[in-house]
From TrEMBL:
Presence of the UniProt keyword Cell membrane in the record: no
Gene symbol of the encoding locus: thiM
A GO MF label: magnesium ion binding
Annotated Gene3D superfamilies: 3.40.1190.20
Catalytic activity, reaction form: 5-(2-hydroxyethyl)-4-methylthiazole + ATP = 4-methyl-5-(2-phosphooxyethyl)-thiazole + ADP + H(+)
Residues noted as binding ATP in the record, renumbered to the chain: 119, 165
Designated name of the protein: Hydroxyethylthiazole kinase
EC number: 2.7.1.50
Amino acid sequence: MSHAPDTLLTALRATPPLVQCITNYVAMNIAANVMLAAGASPAMVSDVEEAEEFAGIAGAVTVNIGTLSPPFVAGMHAAIRGARGAGRPWVLDPVACQATAYRRAVVQALVAEGPTIIRGNASEILSLAGEASRGQGVDGRDPVAAAEEGARRLARSSGAVVAVTGEVDYVTDGERAVRIEGGSPFMPMNTALGCSLTCLCGAYAAVAEDAFDAAVAALAHFAVAGAKADEGASGPGSFAPRFLDALAAVTPADLSRGAIHDAAVPA
């Protein structure tokens, strides 16, 4: 059954989902604050000794490859085993997956584990789809529109919902697609907001029956909050606290006011 973003936000705040966020060291504090402001409950549990067990009690798991090391990767796979064993959704953020051979190998193994949602910038999604990208390190240099066809192919081959984020976001499961407008030019100037959005995708996936609906709702929540925070912000520094306030202030009614537009999916 499909649920609109406003319904999912109501559900998320009524029973805040516990989300196991395996994210990078740069993002942990920011992502935790974003999750709390939005209405979810984050837990940064990543060690292999407990990651699988904890995933069994979490509502969802998110995996971000921003700061890689073999122990971190082992914890990721353990958490994914726990999520799959408990029938929980898990979200993959392929940070800079095109940058090094190690990252490419790690992300290929993670995609093979069957993520529920993949969220990345256009350069990362192009790389996962087997296409050339202009990404430099963690910075995406490709426009979202350039990755839309690759996102549809990746969704069909992986079985995941694919969310491409940028100036105008694009979400597809290979058969359906939407674009989401909003946000602020200051968002790319604040570190770890994309990583935090991946965690929020996990929160919405924990309360949604349809992963496509979950990704759309999470991206709409971010887009609306970003636009609200942009009002009165004079730069990236003043934007950051306004964004946390805006995440908390977004109402279900705000998510039904035109940020989401259907996109045609070529046959």
